[in-house]
Design goal:
The chain has about 150 residues and is an alpha+beta fold. It has four helices and seven strands, in the order αβββββββααα. A hairpin with a 2-residue loop joins strand 4 and strand 5. It is globular. The structure holds cobalt (II) ion. Cobalt (II) ion (CO) binds next to helix 2.
């Protein structure tokens, strides 16, 4: 495992659309281990592959301070219900916190690092996190959606 550089806002890499993962191989596993390492070191909740400069549809997340991890490859939101407004931050946008409206509940279909299908059901903070990370895979940053921006 190795920590990777976290790309910061202003870097064009963060604005690209990531490609689906097609090879569930050792290289993918190594990347995901590095992403977890990077996430823990940065003390974040979620990290998407483009944030470490890899344009592949992958994110990792932790909701218990780095004890257990959610890993999602090729995630797709298949269900979204309700609305919730909450402040978000991003490891690629230091020292900024802005309110974003997200679904209160989401169901995400994805794959684990071995290519097995997984279903992630989440509410509230976790739902917002999944939406935030999946946005990264489409080159979207939370500041694009913040209510502050909408009201400007
Ligand atoms: Co982010």
């Amino acid at each position: 495992m190795a920590r990777r550089k976290i790309y910061q806002i202003g870097d064009d890499t963060l604005r690209q659309v990531s490609k689906p993962v097609t090879e569930f191989d050792d290289k993918l596993s190594a990347l995901m281990d590095d992403m977890i390492d990077t996430l823990v070191y940065a003390d974040g909740a979620g990290l998407a592959a483009p944030q470490v400069g890899v344009l592949k549809r992958i994110f990792v997340a932790t909701f218990d301070g780095g004890r257990t991890f959610i890993e999602a490859v090729n995630p797709v939101i298949v269900e979204a219900k309700g609305k919730r407004v909450a402040a978000e931050g991003c490891l690629s946008i230091p020292n900024i916190s802005e309110k974003v409206e997200r679904p209160r509940h989401v169901v995400v279909h994805a794959f684990d690092r071995h290519g097995n299908p997984i279903v992630l059901k989440a509410d509230n903070f976790e739902a917002s996190c999944y939406c935030h990370e999946i946005d990264h895979l489409d080159g979207i940053l939370f500041t694009d959606k913040s209510l502050r921006r909408k009201n400007r």
